[in-house]
Design goal:
The structure is a homodimer.
Chain A: H1 3-21, H2 30-40, H3 47-58, H4 63-85, E1 94-95, E2 98-99, H5 101-105, H6 107-125, H7 134-148, H8 153-163, H9 171-196, H10 201-228, H11 231-234, H12 240-243, H13 249-253, H14 255-272, H15 281-290
Antiparallel strand pairs in A: 1-2
Helix pairs in contact in A: 1-4, 2-6, 3-4, 3-9, 3-15, 4-6, 4-9, 7-9, 8-9, 9-10, 10-14, 14-15
Chain lengths: 295, 295
């Protein structure tokens, strides 16, 4: 299959839906809505929404039914980036080559835009206009909220922050950071797509294995890119992890072993998809792409 | 009825439930969970949860069924206070006589504790352990998320922030701030209690009128207290609104007219409850109490 074309098409659909779901930048308070939109449309690759759509398709569901949840997931991802970039956190001036939210809108509005995007996600997930079985939708809300909360993404962010600059970070801590900070939302994306698509218990478990494997592979690949990529390719400073004294897979287990581990995880992900037919081709292609990408 | 005793009993029940629902302070990351608990148990009056319980009782529902939603509401209220107090926002060092979250845990953890409390609310609202009709529960999630989002509380906070220090704030703007920043959550609390209690359409509308009236009365009373209360009674600096150049009802329409308006709103709230029997006594007593309280 042509993954590039698939990703392009899905990204467009996601962007159109986000455009529709987000309050207009002209709606008051316009600074807030402008700030929310600024970061949502700052060139994200829509990895999580695409995974949700692809997981839904893999079990034979209609991608239309998951679009609101897919957009909700992208809003949560975006809020986490806005808050991560704040002066009190990573203090980043640029993200994907553009000034970060607080550099453009100020710190207070950036904090509130993040808060509002997180909240907007749950507005979308519980919205009346959507179809779908109410019990399944509650399950999706639970899945996403747990993944985003103190036992998921936020917990991972706290441990990441507390580990920065320390030289005694071990593999268990690094693994906690990755499975929580980035892995949790990827897992919730795939599982939510599966739930909304009507997955069987067997399919749900297989997709969970797939998600956990690619979530970690994705993060290891990110760590490798930070060592090997160029600043131009990444849209942020290459080598920034090292400069910050961040624990990474290459730092803890070496570059070659990290590459081998990422490759192994891709294979685990592909094996998990063995029970699926051709409708899982996009998920297969995404797994292989993760370790080949340049940014 | 003995409102003081009623409030005391309900507060205890809410506190016990919050204790049960929040992750333990010893659970990792303990800085995060400690920070979340610090602000949740910092002496809040549990106004919103009590209103939700009382509204549910007024329509004949069981208060047990709304306890998770009531606690979710208190978590959202608490997150909003943590973020409001941040240096980039109101930059407050004290809240209810105690150091603010970021003074104790640092700015980064305070931001993340707020994020996690907001998310925890939706974990609770969508949790499996709860009973209740799934469609009604989705409606409650929608109600609460809309009230907390950019068209509700966060929107009100942005306009409040942008109005600070300006001397041309008119009644329309002040009204927008109050109905959004504090009114929205009070309305959602009452309406969510009504939904979970199985309110009829007529009861739901009456309770909405009640909520809107007491929400505004509550805010006007707050403005009046800031002028008339003592620092000791308030647990924060008296006269702080004026010192900050904040628009208030007393500043815009005078102290006596503000008191008359608050009294009028209490009467509107009581009139809205005319269709209810004795089970609405707590709601009636709360309405009258709002303009009499000293803190």
């Amino acid at each position: 299959m042509d993954l590039k074309e698939y990703l392009k098409q899905k990204c467009q659909l996601v962007d159109q839906a986000l455009e529709r779901f987000l309050p207009a930048a002209t709606e008051l308070p316009s600074s807030l809505h402008g700030s929310m939109r600024y970061s949502v449309f700052a060139g994200g690759k829509r990895v999580r929404p695409v995974l949700m759509l692809a997981a839904c398709e893999a079990v034979g569901g209609s991608p239309d039914a998951v679009m609101p949840a897919a957009c909700a997931m992208e809003m949560i991802h975006t809020y986490s980036l806005i808050h991560d970039d704040l002066p009190a956190m990573d203090n980043d001036d640029f993200r994907r080559g553009n000034p970060t939210n607080h550099k453009v809108y100020g710190e207070a509005t950036a904090i509130l835009a993040g808060d509002a995007l997180l909240t907007e996600a749950f507005i979308l997930l519980s919205g009346e206009g959507q179809g779908g079985d109410p019990a399944a939708r509650l399950r999706v809300i639970q899945e996403i909220a747990v993944a985003a909360g103190s036992r998921g993404m936020v917990g991972g962010q706290v441990v990441d922050m507390e580990s920065e600059g320390r030289h005694d970070v071990d593999m268990a801590t690094l693994s906690y950071i990755h499975t929580h900070k980035t892995g949790a939302l990827i897992r919730a994306s795939v599982r939510s797509g599966a739930i909304m698509g009507g997955a069987s218990e067997e399919q749900f478990k297989a997709l969970t294995r797939y998600a956990d494997a690619i979530g970690l592979a994705f993060q290891i690949a990110d760590d490798i890119l930070d060592v090997e990529g160029t600043t131009e390719e990444l849209g942020k400073d290459a080598g920034s992890d090292q400069a910050r004294g961040k624990a990474t897979y290459p730092a803890l287990m070496g570059l070659e072993a990290s590459k081998a581990r990422a490759q192994e995880l891709v294979q685990i992900a592909l094996d998990a998809l063995a029970i699926f037919d051709d409708r899982a081709e996009p998920l297969r292609a995404i797994a292989s792409y993760i370790v080949k990408r340049k940014s």
